Amino acid sequence: MLTRKQHELLMFIHERMKESGVPPSFDEMKDALDLKSKSGIHRLITALEERGFIRRLPNRARAMEVIRLPDSMNPSLGGKKSKFEPSVIQGDLGRAREPVSASTIAQDENPNAPVTIPVMGRIAAGVPIAAIQEQSHTISVPPEMLAGGEHYALEVSGDSMIDAGIFDGDTVLIKKQVTASNGEIVVALVNDEEATLKRLRKKGQSVALEAANPAYETRIFGPDQVAVQGRLVGLFRKY
């Protein structure tokens, strides 16, 4: 059961995708729903994702997939159920393959077999870079490292997280999620443009992205500027 605003946003995204294939910006969604701030859009998108209507694709600004529509369709669609094939709203950073879900482990003949996880490019742990692009290769991960849900991996560039044991050239394993607790290390998308690996701190309406290296300053943002793309759950290193 969707609220009126959740339903309006879902249908707006769906109609825009059908008409032009161009994803609506957060400002466009805010104006379409007559909301005062983009934080309301973030909450609605999170609610739609939690209810299984959309899925945000990691590593790409503003990219999401419409999985299904409500049983009771919007009148503009004729009020009928129809066969719906998911379509991808392409974001700013190029197309990538879907991360592998840990739930597929149970479908394998050998549930202890390593799981193939896509490596989705490089992530900044230092000076900001245009980090995440598209799948470059894959790695095999022991299933016991996956705590359910979808995962992807990133190569680390920079030294701002060295005091947390994360070095330049490491590969980090990320669980896809849109929320995180204070103190957790996350992939954060800043202003829909810059991806970075930092420790998350929240205080009131402020969001801090904290380095683990005294040479780097903690960066403070408003709640609308930072979107969590996943949480660090593992690390791989070559010697």
Average residue-wise pLDDT: 75
Radius of gyration based on Cα positions: 19 Å
Count up the helices: 3
Main β-sheet: number of strands, strand sense, barrel status?
10 strands, mixed
As a percent range, the share of strand residues is 25-35%
Helix content: 10-25%
Q: Provide the low-confidence segments as ranges.
A: 73-109, 127-131
Described by the principal axes of the CA atoms, the overall outline is: globular
Distance between the termini: 52 Å
Strand element count = 13
Helix-strand makeup class: alpha+beta
List the secondary-structure elements in sequence, H or E.
Answer: HHHEEEEEEEEEEEEE
Please, could you describe this protein's structure?
It contains 3 helices and 13 strands; from the N terminus they run αααβββββββββββββ. α2 packs across α3. β5 and β6 form a beta hairpin. The protein is an alpha+beta fold. The radius of gyration is 19 Å and the shape is globular. The strands form 2 sheets. Strands 4, 5, 6, 7, 8, 9, 10, 11, 12 and 13 form a 10-stranded mixed sheet that branches. The chain has a 3-stranded antiparallel sheet with strand order 1-2-3.
How do the helices and strands line up, and which of them pair or pack?
Elements: H1 4-20, H2 26-32, H3 38-50, E1 54-56, E2 64-66, E3 88-89, E4 100-101, E5 115-124, E6 132-141, E7 150-157, E8 171-175, E9 185-190, E10 194-203, E11 206-210, E12 219-221, E13 226-236
Parallel strand pairs: 5-7
Antiparallel strand pairs: 1-2, 2-3, 4-7, 5-6, 7-8, 8-13, 9-10, 9-13, 10-11, 11-12
